[in-house]
Design a protein that fits this description.
Low-confidence stretches: none
Helix content: over 70%
Shape: globular
CATH superfamily of the largest domain: MetI-like
Largest sheet: none
Number of helices: 12
CATH class of the largest domain: Mainly Alpha
Structural class: mainly alpha
Strand content: under 5%
Amino acid sequence: MRVVAAAATLIVLSVMVFWATEVLPGDATGVVSGPNATDAERDAVRVALGLDRPAIERYGTWLLGVVQGDLGNSLVSGRAVDEILLSRLSVSLAVVIPAAGILIVAGSLGTTIGLRAGTRLDKALTAITLGVIAIPEFLIATLVVFVFAVWVPLLPAVAIIPAGQNIWQHPELVVLPALALAIGGFGATMRMLRASVAQTVATPYAESARLNGVRGLAYIRLVLANAAGPATQALSIMIAGLFGGAIVVETLFNVPGLGYEITRAVSNRDVPLVQALSLILSAAVLCILLCGDVLSHLLRERTTRQEQFR
């Protein structure tokens, strides 16, 4: 049922993306034909690109191609969209994977604090995380660049990949983008998992365990087992959000990933490329959320069976 809902969501998103590109002024004709082209030349280019056809017909053709595994070709470069997608995906993953690792660290820290809810450490870190959450993402990126690229020039401010090489060969290029991407969600992730664990600690089940002398690692395992379901779901939401933040971060740091490419495609009115990249990013987000839901459900069922067995 969740898979059907995800597929329906993707179709709705594809319609919304197509409609959004249609209402934007201009199209790819101006980019392809150049600024000095005559009206006749522009009309010829528009016909060659198929932009003279009705919007509903173009959308139907594109959707049929997607179902058949054909994402189409870029209107501007003429390259196959799936070729562009594969080349940009590895770059985006080089940024998103380290950022996801940082969020997992934030979740671990939130879990630790949740076990000690109400302590001075909990209150201090709560205040700090609230301050981080209040800072806009673009300002966080600016501060990261200022500290690590200007004030203490340890890392490059923009990602310039040498010709013939890839970003995986230059890990220093992804440090600042990954930090900027993860810091924005660090505080929220920590607070969400802290709340999940603290809520479990306050349940009658956990209190009964404490009264019966359960201490140390046994108590921690008991709490974490009960908090694992909601915590997994919360963590999946934050990791999925990285793909949306990557659009801004990649553009700011000149990282040639999916986010950077979709920004260029929108400015060029390259509709097939915008549609395909938006669909792929949406599918990635929905897949992560779906995995989080399924894993959370399995963990809840396991915990329920263990409690019944006891």
